[in-house]
């Protein structure tokens, strides 16, 4: 692949390039990958902001397509040097059926792998997830763990199951021969809960707070820590891995890397308040306002209501049995594998990540007025 640092020669493909993370990866590549000649952005739903990117020196090719359609994926992959596969159905709220989640996240990933094999693309970076590891169905905490920490990764929910299967397909494909006889080099990145500009769940929390007069009500003990990572640092890790994968194929090929930065370990709700607080919202209660059994009952009622209403309307509240269990289980990572293997260091400090996210929420506030 070795593109010249001076002459832009490389073609990258980003699947899911119009999503929350995908957009940051696309913009980061255009800013920080000097070898880029063409950037292909493949997504089911193309965004209007892509048009503004077409005026720069890099050819930006918007491709409307579906990763579940092998021929569409193959056409997009053909001729690319690197594929960053971040397209996926990120659904823990019951918006999509288990079958659809599996089809997009697993079959879609299989299509990307096969397209690389058939067309001779050698380098594949997959956006996996912390959920490939946990929290597991038993609610075991994962406290400051790393890529080698033993943990019983047992899942039942369609989303983590699909991510785990897709990641396994990607890692098992490492070393297989692509068209032309060279080896496919793959690796998987496992972000913890990503936050930052464009994060839909943060937007949902903000809107929920507005509906309750600027108040959010604590449901989870402050002691339950969740690892979070700023979207800009996740995007940077993708760019760096894509750049280093060729030179360090023997070390990085077939590996997984947690995405991490200096974001503090806090409960999910307390962490969100780092951004929502400066925008006028208050988290009521130093302890959960309701007993856990009542939260479980309410979450179960939400799931029942979702099932009953499904023929009429899609009811997808934040609180359901799975999200409650996730929120209520400590999951934090402490690792430096990415730094050791390919020199990753967070591009954005915690202070910068926080300021950028607050600025974005304030823009939401302005548009909500
Ligand atoms: N958001 C997080 O906290 C988080 C954490 C860890 C990992 N991830 C992973 O990061 C990736 C991106 O997540 P996100 O939060 O940006 O989600 P997102 O929903 O904002 O982006 C996903 C993108 O994929 C596209 N897509 C969905 N189905 C498609 C299909 N069939 N064909 C083509 N494109 C399709 C969507 O249109 C969207 O633009 C996912 O693979 C997700 O599992 C997300
Ligand atoms: C209603 C309360 C109980 C409230 O605290 C629920 C919060 C809940 C919506 C979130 C708690 C943990 C989140 C998940 C976590 O950050 C990691 C994820 C992995 C990633 O691949 C996709 C997103 C997510 C599943 C993320 C989704 C929201 C939470 C469940």
- Uncertain residue segments: none
Largest sheet: 7 strands, parallel
Number of helices: 12
> How would you write the strand order of the largest sheet?
3-2-1-4-5-7-11
Order of helices and strands: EHEEHEHEEHEEHEEHHEHEHHEHH
DSSP strand count: 13
Q: Compute the CA-based radius of gyration.
A: 20 Å
Beta fraction of the residues? Answer: 15-25%
| CATH level-1 class of the domain at 10-201 and 228-262 and 331-349 | Alpha Beta
Structural class: alpha/beta
CATH fold title of the domain at 10-201 and 228-262 and 331-349: Rossmann fold
From the coordinates shown, what is the CATH architecture of the domain at 10-201 and 228-262 and 331-349? 3-Layer(aba) Sandwich
Describe the structure.
This protein is an alpha/beta fold and 369 residues long. The protein has a domain at 10-201 and 228-262 and 331-349: 3-Layer(aba) Sandwich (Rossmann fold). The protein has helices spanning 20-32, 70-77, 98-119, 158-173, 200-211, 231-244, 249-252, 268-276, 292-309, 321-327, 337-342, 350-368; strands at residues 10-15, 36-43, 59-64, 82-85, 123-127, 142-145, 185-191, 193-195, 215-217, 228-230, 255-259, 282-284, 331-333. A seven-stranded parallel β-sheet has the order 3-2-1-4-5-7-11, with helices on both faces. Strands 6-13 form a two-stranded parallel ribbon. Helix 1 links the parallel strand 1 (10-15) and strand 2. Helix 1 (20-32) packs across helix 6, helix 2 packs across helix 3 and helix 3 (98-119) runs parallel beside helix 4 (158-173). The chain is globular. The mean pLDDT is 96. The structure holds nicotinamide-adenine-dinucleotide and ligand LT3Y6G4Z. Residues 90, 92, 129-131, 193, 201, 219-220, 268-269, 318-319, 323-324, 326-327 line the site of ligand LT3Y6G4Z.
């Amino acid at each position: 692949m070795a593109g010249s640092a001076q002459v832009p020669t490389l073609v990258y493909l980003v699947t899911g390039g119009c999503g929350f993370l995908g957009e940051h990866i696309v913009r980061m590549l255009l800013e920080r990958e000097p070898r880029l000649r063409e950037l292909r952005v493949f997504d089911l739903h193309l965004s209007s902001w892509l048009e503004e990117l077409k005026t720069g020196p890099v050819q930006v090719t918007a491709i409307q397509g579906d990763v579940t359609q092998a021929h569409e994926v193959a056409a997009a992959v053909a001729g690319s040097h690197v594929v960053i596969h971040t397209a996926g159905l990120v659904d823990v709220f019951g918006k999509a059926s288990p079958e659809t989640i599996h089809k997009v996240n697993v079959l879609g990933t299989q299509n990307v792998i096969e397209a690389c094999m058939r067309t001779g693309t050698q380098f594949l970076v997959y956006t996996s997830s912390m959920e490939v590891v946990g929290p597991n169905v038993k609610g075991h905490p994962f406290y400051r763990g790393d890529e080698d920490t033993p943990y019983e990764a047992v899942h039942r929910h369609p989303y983590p199951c699909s991510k785990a299967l897709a990641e396994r397909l990607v890692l098992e494909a490492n070393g297989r021969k692509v068209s032309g006889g060279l080896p496919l080099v793959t690796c998987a990145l496992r972000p913890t809960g990503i936050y930052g500009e464009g994060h839909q769940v943060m937007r949902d929390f903000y809107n929920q707070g507005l509906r309750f007069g600027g108040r959010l009500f604590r449901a989870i003990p402050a002691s339950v820590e969740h690892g979070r990572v700023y979207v800009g640092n996740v995007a940077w890790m993708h760019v760096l891995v894509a750049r280093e994968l060729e030179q360090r194929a023997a070390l990085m090929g077939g590996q997984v890397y947690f995405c991490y930065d200096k974001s503090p370990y806090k409960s999910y709700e307390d962490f969100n308040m780092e951004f929502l607080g400066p925008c006028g919202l208050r988290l009521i209660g130093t302890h959960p306002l309701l007993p856990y059994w009542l939260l479980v009952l309410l979450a179960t009622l939400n799931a029942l209501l979702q099932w009953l209403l499904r023929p009429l309307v899609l009811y997808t509240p934040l609180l359901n049995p799975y999200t409650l269990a996730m929120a209520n289980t400590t999951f934090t990572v402490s690792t430096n594998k990415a730094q050791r293997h390919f020199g990753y260091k967070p591009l954005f400090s915690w202070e910068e990540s926080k300021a950028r996210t607050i600025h974005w929420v304030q823009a939401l506030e302005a548009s909500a007025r």
